Write a sequence for this structure.
């Protein structure tokens, strides 16, 4: 009886540990390509500009790249708990023909700066800027 109780206690502890690990972010959880769904103030996100393929790809090697409307970008990222730190982000400097696309691009690139906070599940990723003034919401491609 005591062995059975110890077994169930061990299994319970492992399940709780796994659930805690899954609820926190990890680089494996964000690896892959994501499509921008919305952007802006965390309390008032605007839908992504229609017909603009805004994609962000997190590589297994710690690289991040994509296209944010008019310009391609790239750099590095590291994940620590529920934080993503972006480093060495550079982008091309093409002028966006549509002001809405340029605004979207500015918000996305400003959000991908410094140490951000994020939440992730299998199909959705939300990132809030280091200063908390902007956010982006992405869906898995």
């Amino acid at each position: 009886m005591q062995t059975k109780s110890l077994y169930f206690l061990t299994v319970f502890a492992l399940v709780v540990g796994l659930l805690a690990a899954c609820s926190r972010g990890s680089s494996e959880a964000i690896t892959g390509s994501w499509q921008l769904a919305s952007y802006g103030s965390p309390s008032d996100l605007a839908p992504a500009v229609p017909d603009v393929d805004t994609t962000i790809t997190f590589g297994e090697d710690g690289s991040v790249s994509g296209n944010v409307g008019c310009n391609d970008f790239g750099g590095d990222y590291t994940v620590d708990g529920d934080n993503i730190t972006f480093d060495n982000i550079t982008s091309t400097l093409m002028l966006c023909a549509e002001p809405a696309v340029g605004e979207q691009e500015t918000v996305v690139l400003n959000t991908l700066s410094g140490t951000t906070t994020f939440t992730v599940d299998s199909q959705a990723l939300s990132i809030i800027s280091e200063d908390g003034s902007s956010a982006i919401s992405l869906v898995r491609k």
In short: Residues 59 and 136 are 19 Å apart (CA to CA).
